[in-house]
Amino acid sequence: MLRQTVRICSKNAVKNAVLGGRCAFSSSDSQEKHYDVVIVGGGMVGTTLANAISNNASLSELSVLLLEASAKFKGFAGGSYSNRVSALNRNTIDLLNSIGAWQHIQSARFRGIRRMQVWDALSDAFITFNQDPGEDLAYIVENDLIVDAALKTMNSGPNITVKYSSGIKECSIPTSAEERASVTLNDGEVFTCNLLIGADGAKSLVRRRMNVNTFEFPYNQSGIVATLEVEDSGENSTAWQRFLPTGPVALLPLSDSLSSLVWSTTSEEAKRLVKMQPEEFVAELNRAFTRSYNESGVASVLDVLRKCLVPADKKHPPPRVAKVLDNSRAAFPLGFSHASSYVKNGAVLIGDAAHRIHPLAGQGVNLGFGDVKALTTILEDTVCSGAKLGDLSHLLKYERERLSRNVPIMLGTHGIQRLYCTDLAPIVLMRSIGLQVTHSLPFLKKIFMDRAMY
After folding, report:
1. What average pLDDT does range 267-290 have in this prediction?
2. Is the pLDDT of residue 454 over 70?
3. Model pTM score
4. Which of 28, 83, 390, 398 is least enclosed, having the fewest CB within 10 Å?
5. Half-sphere exposure (Cβ direction) of 223: Cα atoms closer than 13 Å
6. Band (30; pLDDT cuts 50, 70, 90)
7. Which helix (H) or strand (E) holds 340?
8. Which of 208, 99, 117, 195 lies closest to 154, judged by CA?
9. Phi, psi of 93 (to 5 degrees)
10. Cα distance between residue 355 and residue 367, in whole Å
11. Distance between CA atoms of 219 and 221, rounded to whole angstroms?
12. Coil, strand, or helix at residue 280?
């Protein structure tokens, strides 16, 4: 049972939606296997969607196939921390809580962010975000643990199938309401479905076969990730982010003594940093957080401005990095992409297959989980109305809802990235004044926090 209030649809409505005028498990081709829903991509977003469908009382009769190209997931064993983590907002926590996955994560490990400090290296302008006592701004969770939680709490009935080592060779999208989508694996196995869901990442094959335009470009930056040991961090519940001329560098708390690094810099610099000896890398990282940039003109203007503003939180230095854990450094290219449409008849995109943004605001995966939450609701509406799964009129409701949420966040994140990638004095002054004024106005900070947390 889904751990939230759901509508119980009539059996006839469910039957009509599932069958769509056909037998759900029959096929004119004996070599084809038919499912109501096929999800391509078994990462965090795709696996959570399969879980959400399986735990929804109105959707539990749907046959669902989850296809993942990688080898079988080994589960979360604990031990050393992974270098791939996500900052989950409250909307995502609500979703995970509703399917029982958050309780599983709580029983393993996570870290709450109580405070966040962001500052400009070229001017020292800064802003801090603090949540009410006893509440957290966000939660840092390892990506593998999120997948593990979604799998462990999935309603493992006969209607849910997870298939690993299932690389997709080809897929086809229906051209009419009477046709079915199909997926062909590398080994020749074929599956048909009433609804094909692309959760297969930024290079989505499903998106390409939907023949929708995609606006995309590289940032010519790479994101370096690593697990770090930090000194004098206390309870280590603060997230730190400094905007350098080459890109932002951030520390995210993992435990009292460990933090996760996300360092965006030029692709050439990233290659150099990843190849450095551990001691050299740590020294370079500490310099990135403490190096002084001589922008005295901007700094003097800000000093005058601060005297005119209501006193607010003071800027604090981040903890010193003592060590980078062995084999935890890695780098990946950064880019922006957005599909012109998320839906076609019988097909829909979620997560990075639909949209990809810079990691500086930590919103990428939260947008994907927002897709999951919205699509599950739309599928429930479809089933309860007796409409056929994959009906375009219902899928367009999902698209409209998600575009209204995703596009402003994507444009805002891209705007921040562009604003902070220049060292032109007038722009540095403008952004620094904006940051410092916002820091001094609690109601304005609350608007930004609410937008990011929900």
Report:
1. 97
2. no
3. 0.92
4. 28
5. 20
6. very low
7. none
8. 99
9. -60, -40
10. 8
11. 5
12. helix
